Each structure stands twice: as C-alpha cells, then as structure tokens.
Amino acid sequence: MCNGLLSACETAGQWQRALTILAEMAEKWRLQPDLISYVTAMTAINGQDGDNWEVALQLLHCMGENQVEARGGGLKGVSFVAFDLQEARKKKKEKS
C-alpha cells in the first residue's frame, strides 16, 4: 500500500509528500521501508529537472544506514537512480 502511495507521489511530482510518507512508514505505521520504497521516493525527489538530487542522495545514504539490501533487479533500480543523480548533478554544475 505505501509503495503504491509513493508511486502516486512520483507520478504527480509530489516529492515532499513522498518524503513524508517514507518517514511516516516507520514512525506512525511501524512499517520498514524496503528497497522499492526508497527507490520510488528517490525517483520522485529527483523528478524531471534533477534540482533535488542532494535530497535523493541523502535517502540513498539512509537506505544504507537502515541496512536495506539491494539484490538482483533491485540493485539495478538503485544503479539507475544513482546514475540519474550523477547526471542531475552534472547538469546543475553546467547551469552555474
């Protein structure tokens, strides 16, 4: 259910709401965000323009701190997000 909400936030461009849902999963609902939760939230945060890549990078760090495992296809999702973050960072530097 929560991953569906995160996906809806991603589609709607509501990255702040995605962050709130991710935080509330553990705090309010006592659910442990999984790999799909983090990847979906990072994708929502990075969005179309990539201006929020630093926030998404912090989530990648949190994912490691919370010992969320990335295996198989999930690892591929994380690599795509990491690549997108790197590209967004490059674009931002080029704009400066």
Helix-strand makeup class: mainly alpha
C-alpha Rg (nearest Å) = 13 Å
Helical element count?
A: 5
What is the end-to-end distance?
Answer: 40 Å
In total, how many beta strands? 0
Q: State the low-pLDDT regions, or none.
A: none
Strand residues, percent: under 5%
Number of domains: 1
Shape: globular
The biggest beta sheet is recorded as: none
Helix content: over 70%
What's the rounded overall pLDDT mean?
Answer: 83
The topology string of helices and strands comes to: HHHHH
Describe this structure in words.
- The protein has 96 residues and is mostly helical.
- It contains five helices and no strands.
- It has one domain (2-95).
- It has helices spanning 2-12, 15-27, 35-46, 53-65, 72-95.
- The protein is globular and about 40 Å long.
- It starts with a helix and ends with a helix.
SSE order and pairing:
Layout: H1 2-12, H2 15-27, H3 35-46, H4 53-65, H5 72-95
Helix pairs in contact: 1-2, 1-3, 2-3, 3-4, 3-5, 4-5
Key structural traits:
globular, 96 residues
Task: Summarize the model shown.
With 96 residues, the protein is mostly helical.
